[in-house]
Specification:
By secondary structure, this protein is α/β, with parallel strands linked by helices. Helix content is about 30%, strand content about 25%. Strands 1, 10, 11, 12, 13, 14, 15, 16 and 17 form a 9-stranded mixed beta sheet that branches. An 8-stranded parallel beta barrel has the order 2-3-4-5-6-7-8-9, surrounded by 5 helices. The mean pLDDT is about 100. It binds pyridoxal-5'-phosphate. Pyridoxal-5'-phosphate binds next to helix 10.
């Protein structure tokens, strides 16, 4: 079957490769791994992920419900701020809840009695290439840092959460951050039973010292007598998914331009937010093109890539590594066609799992 582009294509064989690393890390470190739904929430492949992960973590009521309903295992709740009208439903759907501030903990703890509660701490150090994504940026609202406020809250909580890594593929840098956390929050760490170290550790990447990470996590868990959790998003989905598109038009305006049937603003928003280029594999040949999206935004540009042949209308292109923070962020800007979602099963068969049409666009508005 030939699928109409655009569509995201999730390759389960590639996903399984990442999953096997996750399982190895869990088994050798004792840490539990929760899928961060903010990065990837395409539940058509949760069956495979659930075999290799302990559950999910969330950033909102909708995500916590999806985690409980579609993934199972342990369901953790976190939000930058919960509203009064949603907290009861959040608590009903989670096993543990992490509050972002002492204020939120104080406001809602009586409504979460019987659920394990944690507090997010902000160590004011981080690993992040982008200020906009840096949880430790100046005046950050993400977590508590004041020792007096934290110590006063300790009797109410059994866990802590730190999220201070962002696509960190440098094990030594991870160790430095963890050592700083241990030194700064020793008092709090010695009072609790579980610690989430958040996401952002690129441990499924090629050449990452997985065994050394496992050893470091094990030492941490033993030193503080805690259950360690990790919340990987990108590490789970990296290099598993492509965005398949077709060339709709070619132009020349000082450079060769090719317009495709997808948009970075609508379908790969992080490229715009972080001013990054998409990945095209292979990216070689004597013909260079700036590949552009089909929205009206002048800067809707996937990047400049090389090809063996001149591009022509109807050519199929494939952007690599398009699974993380894409499907969860897609939007209906310009009403451009929404990419379908397809899965390449372990036997190689491609299965269409979701398509979107005019009705979905219309019903997203009123
Ligand atoms: C609290 C928390 N946990 C987990 C993650 C997942 O991070 P990543 O997708 O980089 O692994 C994030 C990302 O922002 C986060 O804020």
């Amino acid at each position: 079957m030939t699928l109409q582009t655009p569509f995201y294509l999730i390759d389960k064989t590639a996903l399984l490769r990442n999953c096997e690393k996750i399982t190895r890390l869990r088994q050798s470190s004792g840490a539990k791994c929760l899928l961060a739904l903010k990065c990837f929430a395409t539940w058509a492949v949760f069956d495979l992920l659930a075999e290799h992960m302990d559950g999910t973590t969330s950033s909102s009521l909708n995500e916590v419900k999806l985690g409980r309903q579609k993934f199972g295992g342990e369901t953790h709740a976190y939000s930058v701020a919960y509203g009064d009208h949603e907290i009861d439903e959040v608590v009903a759907h989670c096993d543990r809840i992490v509050f972002n501030s002492v204020n939120q903990l104080e406001r809602f703890r009586s409504r979460a009695v019987g659920t394990k509660m944690g507090l997010r701490l902000n160590p004011q150090i981080s690993y992040s290439a982008f200020d906009i994504a840096d949880p430790a940026r100046l005046h950050s609202r993400l977590g508590e840092w004041d020792p007096d406020r934290i110590n006063a809250a300790l009797p109410q909580i059994s866990g802590l959460m730190f999220h201070c890594n962002c696509e960190n593929n440098d094990f030594e840098a991870f160790c430095r951050i963890l050592a700083a956390v241990e030194e700064r929050f020793a008092h709090a760490l010695s009072h609790i039973d579980w610690v989430s170290l958040g996401g952002g550790i690129h441990f499924t990447g090629e050449g990452y010292p997985l065994d050394a990470l496992a050893e470091r996590l094990k030492t941490f868990a033993a030193r503080w007598a805690v259950q360690v959790y990790l919340e990987p998003g990108e590490a789970v989905i990296t290099n598993t998914t492509t965005l398949e598109v077709t060339v709709l038009d070619t132009l020349h305006n000082g450079k060769n331009l090719a317009i495709v049937d997808a948009s970075i603003e609508a379908h790969m928003l992080d490229l715009l937010t972080y001013r990054l280029a998409a990945k095209m594999v292979p990216n070689r040949g004597e013909h260079s093109y700036m590949v552009c999206g089909n929205s009206c935004l002048a800067g809707d540009i996937f990047g400049e890539f090389r090809f063996e042949h001149p591009l022509a209308v109807g050519d199929r292109l494939s952007f690599a590594d398009a699974g993380g923070y894409t499907m969860v962020k897609k939007n209906w800007f310009n009403g451009v066609p929404m990419p379908s979602i397809a899965v390449r099963e372990l036997d190689g068969q491609v299965r269409l799992v979701k398509s979107f049409g005019y009705d979905d666009y219309r019903d997203s508005l009123s």
